Q: What sequence folds into this?
């Protein structure tokens, strides 16, 4: 794999985990459940950002099936973030 590809995926993962940590810390301070959803959503988004290449390389699947798995994981994270914005 290209170093620039791995670097960009790694940065994306680290940034999303930082946002998830900050949201979780906010949840622990305030007890607001939507912050927990934001935290979980960003964990899914971060993991989804790196899983396509990993699935493709490690399991030897087609790029289309790896992209499908990534899409499902990232979409699940987005749903959690949307739920956090909709909950009162």
A:
């Amino acid at each position: 794999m290209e170093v620039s590809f791995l670097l960009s995926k790694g940065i994306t993962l680290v940034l999303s985990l930082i946002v998830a940590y900050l949201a979780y810390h906010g949840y622990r301070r305030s007890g607001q459940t939507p912050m927990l959803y934001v935290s979980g959503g960003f964990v899914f988004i971060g993991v989804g950002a790196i899983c396509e290449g990993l699935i493709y390389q490690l399991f030897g699947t087609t790029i289309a099936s790896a992209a499908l798995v990534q899409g499902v994981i990232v979409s699940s994270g987005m749903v959690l973030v949307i739920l956090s914005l909709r909950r009162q």
About this structure: The mean pLDDT is 91.
